Amino acid sequence: MYTLLQHLRDYNGIETVFPFGETYHITASDTWQSEEALQQYLQQLGHEQINIQRITANIEDVFMHLMNQPHD
Predict the structure, then answer these.
(1) Higher pLDDT pick, 2 / 69
(2) In terms of C-beta density within 10 A (0-12 exposed, 13-18 middle, 19 or more buried), how is residue 49 classed?
(3) What is the DSSP secondary structure assignment for residue 49, as one 8-state letter?
(4) Helix axes 2-10, 35-44, angle to 10 degrees
(5) What is the distance between the alpha carbons of residues 45 and 14, in angstroms, rounded to a whole number?
(6) In angstroms, rounded to a whole number, what is the distance separating the alpha carbons of residues 70 and 72?
(7) Cα separation of 47 and 45, whole Å?
(8) 72 pLDDT more than 70
(9) What pLDDT, in 10s, does the model give residues 43-61?
(10) Which residues lie closer than 8 Å to 59 by C-beta, 6 or more apart?
């Protein structure tokens, strides 16, 4: 799963990636294309049986986002 994490972090269009158990939660950047484009990218790198779905951010997602903001 570490290789998948690195590939997700390298993808143009992903702002953050956080592991949550056996899944990864990502946030998209302004250059995000689509779930299909990400699926194709991951398949080209040898990742199979990847399930990509949009979710509503939960409290843990918000916390992780806030923790990544610059602190004054």
Answers:
(1) 2
(2) exposed
(3) S
(4) 130
(5) 16
(6) 7
(7) 6
(8) no
(9) 999 999 999 998 887 788 7
(10) none
